[in-house]
Write a structure and sequence with these properties.
Elements (H helix, E strand, L loop, with lengths): L20 E7 L6 H13 L5 E7 L6 H11 L4 E6 L5 H11 L4 E4 L11 H9 L4 E6 L6 H18 L11 E4 H9 L7 H8 L3 E6 L13 H15 L2 H31 L6 H34 L6 E5 L4
Parallel strand pairs: 1-2, 1-4, 2-3, 5-7
Antiparallel strand pairs: 3-8, 4-6, 5-6
Helix pairs in contact: 5-8, 6-7, 9-10
Length: 327
Amino acid sequence: MNDAAHPAVTRPSVAQDRPTLSVVIPVYNEELGLAALFDRLYPALDALAISYEIVFIDDGSRDRSASLLAQQFELRPDVTRVILLNGNFGQHRAILAGFEHCRGERVLTLDADLQNPPEDIRLLLAAMDEGFDCIGTVRRNRQDVAWRRWASRAMNRLRFRLTGIVMNDQGSMMRAYSRDIVQLINQCEEMNTFIPALAYQFSKNPTEVEVGHEARHAGESKYSLYSLIRLNFDLVTGFSLVPLQAFSMLGIIVSLLSGVLFVILAGRRLFLGPEVGGVFTLFALVFLLVGLALFGIGLLGEYIGRIYQEVRARPRYQVNAVLERRQ
C-alpha cells in the first residue's frame, strides 16, 4: 500500500507521548480513496522529520473504511491511531472526537478525499513557525462544480456580515491549530458547532495560507445542497444573534408601514367610498407578510431547537473502539 509495508526502514517521525503534530482525519465511506490517501500522507509527513501521529476517526462508515483503517494501523502502529464511532455523528463531531484523543502540540485537520494535497501540510506548519496559532486555508483553482463555488462565495460574504468571522474559504477543512486552541474547543460542550469559526474566536493571531485543490480522487462528496444549507444555518445561529435582531427590526418596520397603509385605506374609504380595485395587490402583500412571518418563526425555531438539544445533554458522539499502540 505504501512504504509502511517495510517496517525495517528507519524513520525519524515516530510518535512519542507528546508528538509535535497530530493530523486529525474524519472518514465516512471513503474505502475507494483510502489507499491513495495512505500512499501520499505518510511519505509527506515522514519528509517533515518531526514526530507526528495520525488520528483517523471512522464516522460510522457503511463500507470497508473501518477495516482498511484497522489494516493501516497494523502497518504503522507507531504513528497511527484509529477511533471507531458507534454511528454517523457528522464531520464536525467526528473531528471533536479526534481533538479529544489527539496528543500533538500542533493539530491539523484534513479531509480524507485528497482534494487538499497532504504535501501542503508544510505550508501550514511554516505559518505556525511564524507565530500564528490558527491557520486557515484558501483553495487555489478550486475543482468543485460551479454551484458549490458560487454558494461558497455567497455564504462567505453572508457569514462575515452576520458574525464578523473572517474566513475567505469556510469550506476548506485543511486547517491547523495550536494546542491551546484545541484545549479551549474541547472545553466547549455545545451539540452543534462549526470548528473553524469556533477556533477563530479563540485565536489570538489567526491567518490564512493558499493551498492547492484537486479533484476528488474517488467516491463522491458527502455534502448535498441540503447538508450545506443545514451547516450554514448551524454556523449563523451558533455564532450570532444578528438574524433574530434583524427580524425584530423588520417586524417594527412592517408594523409601522402597516399602520400607514391602514390610515391611507381608511381615508380613501371615508372620502371615496368602497373600492374594488387593488384587491389582488392587497392579497399579494398579505402573502408576502405571511411568508416573512413563517420564515421568522422558522428562524426562531432554529434557536429554540439548539436550546432543546443542549438541555437534553446527550453525548455528542459515542466511541465504539480505539486502536492505538499501548505505551
